[in-house]
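Slack export, channel: ligand-projects

TW: morning all. Re-posting the request from yesterday since it got buried. We need the structure predicted with the small molecule present, not the apo form. The ligand is zinc ion; the SMILES is in the block with the sequence. No rush, but it would help planning for next week.
GE: picking it up
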Amino acid sequence: MAGGTHHAHAAHGEGFCVFNDTAVAARVLQAEGLLQRVAVIDLDVHQGNGTASICADDEAIFTFSMHGARNFPVRKASSDLDIELPDASGDAPYLQQLAVALERVFTLARPELVIYLAGADPYHDDRLGRLALSFAGLAARDEMVLAACRQRAVPVAISMAGGYARDIDDTVSIHCRTVLTARQIFNPLLG
Ligand SMILES: [Zn+2]
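GE: finished. pasting the full token output, ligand included:
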């Protein structure tokens, strides 16, 4: 796990991001003929504006971003599906909207691969995020995304994206939980 540098555009970097690893990975897989249809599920608290702009004219790459309406970037790009949440949105409204959105993503994108940006920054004590998810809410979020992929037999690549909790241990715990959840859902025999 690393990356999720979703603010990088085709011709310039932005917001801690130099190269857009998601867009590059999707395009390389397409160029190598390994697959065509990719869905990007970007749940970092900041909009995946670079990914959206790079993939804007690419019908085969579906970009979905769910983020804080008042979080960076001030001027948002247009993803194929954007959900903007008001400040201090907590677990319940977040998970409710995510469940509905995931159905739409899989129906519209029919992906052969999901690239999931599992940002830790929707956390309530994040310094750069304006949402208010708990540890349990973030774990439920991961579970919802990964189970949706598993149920449909769609492979998923996970990147960390952002995380700036006041206590860095919180950010680490959130990312570790994502890994453990993936292991549990994709290889339940390992427990
Ligand atoms: Zn972020």
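GE: first-pass observations. The chain has a mean pLDDT of 96. The two ends are 20 Å apart (CA to CA).
TW: perfect, thank you
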